[in-house]
From TrEMBL:
Residues 574-605 have a biased composition (Basic and acidic residues). It comes from Methylobacterium phyllostachyos. This is BON domain-containing protein. Gene3D superfamilies: 3.40.1520.20, OmpA-like domain. Residues 534-664 are annotated as: Disordered. Residues 534-561 have a biased composition (Low complexity). InterPro entries: OmpA-like_sf.
Amino acid sequence: MSDSFARGLRRAGWLAGLPALALIGVSATLYAAPQIAGRLEAEAADVAAGTATETGEPWLRLEARGRDLMVDGEAPDAEARAAVLSRLAALDGPRRIVSGIGLVETATPFRWAAIRVGPGRVALEGSRPAEIGRRALEARVTGALAPGTSLDDTARAARGAPPDFPSAAAFLAARLSGLAAGGRAALSDTVLNLSGEAVDVPAYEALRAVLSEPPAGFSIGRVEILPPRVAQYRFTVEKDAGGIVLDGFVPSAADREVARRAAQEAAQETASATVDDRLVTARGLDPAIDPKTLIAFAFRLAALIQTGRVTFADGAVSISGDAMDGQAMPDAEALMREARPAGVAAGRISLTARPLSPYRVAIRRTPEAVTLTGHVPDVATRERVLDALRPRLFREPILDRTRLADGAPPDLGAALAAAAPLVAGLATGEASVSDRTLTLTGESLYREVAARAPDRLAEALPPGWTGQAAVSARQPAERRDPATCRADFAAVTAGADLRFPAGSAVPGPAFYPTLDALAALAKACPSLRIAVSGPADPAKAAPTPAAGPGEGAHPAAPSEAEATRVASAAKAEATGKPDAKASGKHDKAEAKADPKDAAKKDAPKRGKPAPKKPEAAAEEPPQDLPRLRTQAVVEYLLQAGARPDQVSTGPDAPAGPVTFALLP
């Protein structure tokens, strides 16, 4: 064995010593490299110290890696950079100098960013003010971060930073504590931007709140903060005697506003109801479910309960509580079956019916419509209220949203029918019933109507009912001088071409813009006096009637008593007061008429059949059509806000459009 080994060594020769030499070399390198690097850094430190600026910090940064010297920083100019590199090259020992030295330039726009790259680590990039030392700025930023956070600062010195840059940098850095990895807080001149995903719900709410108060001189720009993701997404609408409570989650601030508006609209059905918004923004809703559709569906179900809860959880919607009425339970089942949003499962329906307490119904008038809400005992009561409203409304639609339910107080229909004219006479307002108490609130166009509202309500209510009225008078928003009023009147009426359909005294849709403008002008011009003249229909060629001797072909003109009655009724409708004088004349005229004479006049001659009235005569419009048209226009102007003393009837006009005259 020894001879064989010796012969092998002789054949290998000097190659047998290479591993030993390599081991010796590696050992020497590992032992000597740190000493060489330390010596290089110590020699170069004197060069770096010579680059100190007015901040007290040198702009040159260096690191030795073995015999290589890595240098970085921002030199104030090219000459200073060349001088530093020359001094480093003159040192004894560096094998290679790797330079990353740049020049201080003006950054436009000036951008800086802090990025959360992981737990306990934040990277700084972009530009930092040249007049602020790197270590000084890092100390300010670190103070705003969570304790133990390390910085990876690659920001380069530059000119052009906004004033009080350190405060803005610290403000942005502090926001990173509420963001997950990848969160970015950036500055562009004086605009602060924030993006990323919130770590949890409290952090998200805190971020949204603090961004409303940026440092002085700075503004908030783009904010793209994703809400946190929750494992159990839920949304709840709860109704109780005090109001509506919103709880759970919504995917965005826009969806939260949608839910809040829906709750406020639902709370208006009860004057004392309030909205308690406890919603927070979070992700976790199935992407297949539209959040706004889900919110709308929840409130459709919530409208069916007096007290209770509508809940979306685990992908399903359920409803529980006291049903609004007996109709509510099948309605809830139908909604669950037919109107459920895509992606939402049907949950449990647990409703109990109980008598309504209190029993509520309301008539609400707005500039857009008149709306009935609440409950009525039967269809007849509903129709009675609608019949009381329809003749008093020109163009406002009537929206019936009432439901049928037992338990109504006695004489509910009579109370609502009595309140309907009072509500129709308001500019905006409401008559609300709670059991046997009716409350009238709102705003009237006339001071007299507002003052009489309590007395009129007390007179109209059935026995056993109590009423409360709080109606204020609307004052004109502006006043114009007489010359301007006359000029505006001429401008409004110059292009007006208001024509009634043949034989009709009902204003058409084309009337409304002009009449609204005249009413608004009357409110702004208290001294304005307008005369309205309604036109007659164009004359028609009368057909020759086949009438016998003594039989007339033309209809009889209305009697004086009848004309007085029509005018009196129109005036009473417009002003709310009966015309006692006209009523008296009408009664006297009727008293003078002999019933026997009337019977003789109306009865056919003995032995002869009553003559047939020609068809043309049957279609002939009434003789007082111009007066009726005038009264319709006057009525509209009064309802739209003109005072009774500002609008009067003028002489009948010939066929054509309605005419308006300005009285002195």
